[in-house]
Amino acid sequence: MMKDKMLITIQSTVGKEHNFKSREDSESSALGIPYDYGSVMHYSKTSFNIGSKATIITRIPQFSDVIGQRMGFSANDLAKLSLLYNCTKSSTFVESCNFEQENICGMIGGPGEAKWEQRSSVSGGPPNDFTNMGQCKGKGSFMHFSSSSTHSGDRALLESRWLYPKPGVQCLHFFLHNTAAADDVLNIWVREHDKDNPSGKMKLFKSILGGGMSSWELHAINLEVTQKSRVVFEGISGNMTSKGGFSLDDVNMASTKCPQHIWHIHNMTKLLTSTKPGTKSYSPRFLSAAGYSFQVGVYLNGRSDRPGYVGVYVHLTSGPNDHRLQWPCPWQQVTMILMDQQSDIRQQMNNHRMVTTDPEKLSSEGELYWDNPSKVGSKVTASDGTTYYRGPGFGTSSFLSHRRIKSRNFIKGDDAYFLFSMEGLLELSAVTYVERASL
Known about the structure:
Blueprint: H1 2-6, E1 7-9, E2 56-58, H2 75-84, E3 93-97, E4 108-109, E5 117-119, E6 142-146, E7 155-159, E8 168-178, E9 185-194, E10 197-209, E11 216-225, E12 229-236, E13 245-254, E14 261-265, H3 268-274, E15 281-282, E16 286-287, E17 293-299, E18 309-317, E19 332-338, E20 351-356, H4 373-376, E21 378-381, E22 387-401, H5 402-405, E23 416-424
Antiparallel strand pairs: 1-2, 3-13, 4-7, 5-6, 6-13, 7-12, 8-11, 8-13, 9-10, 9-12, 14-23, 15-17, 16-17, 17-18, 18-22, 19-20, 19-23, 21-22
């Protein structure tokens, strides 16, 4: 039995023996998939224990803190599900490209005075790609449009291979390193083809100006594609002097909604160790589609009674639409995701937590928990000197342990990304941004 070759069960510390019964190969099958310490079905090292002692020891010590994860399906979990249910393709996955291969995922250059180039570094930045962050010698490529070596008005097109997404909403997300001049432009188009437009009809979805932060930044754009199509990245040079241009890496597309808001945290490793337990950091304030203002409070090094864990709590905040909104806030679901920055969306194991605003929920003081923050919240002064009201927070003190954070690409280049959405429960009947786009 494969399990016995990979694990040691400490019978003397097991409190519920029936959970550790072994099965013969005639009764169960691994379907030819290698043993998976990272499976979402795997017990943790202390599962069903007596007291606090371990019940399981991994024969490979490095996997001791890997077993028992509940973040999401592992790659081998998905392989088993596909075999069990005869799944030949993903229902939501459309495209993923990290530009490591010379064929750049079948992308092509379009007409224009300039061109996109496959690069491993650029003198004006970035010094390396996003996929590997310079850690693999001889590897690491991205696509770069140089606006420093072109003339005003010069443009370059980079078109994806033919894509055939399910009709409806799709999420295109990618990492962009922006060292372009302030009047340089990156346009994101979709060229749709049908019998009435055999050469393709272009639709613009977003324009990004130069003059960015000179670091890799996540962008997520909702598309609506109904026909076979190509995604087109168009770089255009402006009049101002540029020290670099636009660089693209880790492009992914899936038939799901994008997260509504992105919170980029820099210097994450230092913050995890230097932040005192019990210290709460707050995201910027965001507006939901319905008009509610909210922000997320994060205990990066845990609450005082729960150190070593990241805690996340959602707070309603006073906002510009409060006079026309329904209070207490009824049945809005807030999704909080810490993104696993794996280059291929099919391999990501994002960690998420959802909170729903029950309009009848009461606080310990007997106040309606999700009432207007100006009524039940505390007055807060922001870093820019403005004031607002922040309502009570609700969430979990055990969102993710520090050891789990280090087990995946939750931190990459010392950066982390939280993804937030707030939607009414009726809206959630539509396809929404999910933890894994490979299901």
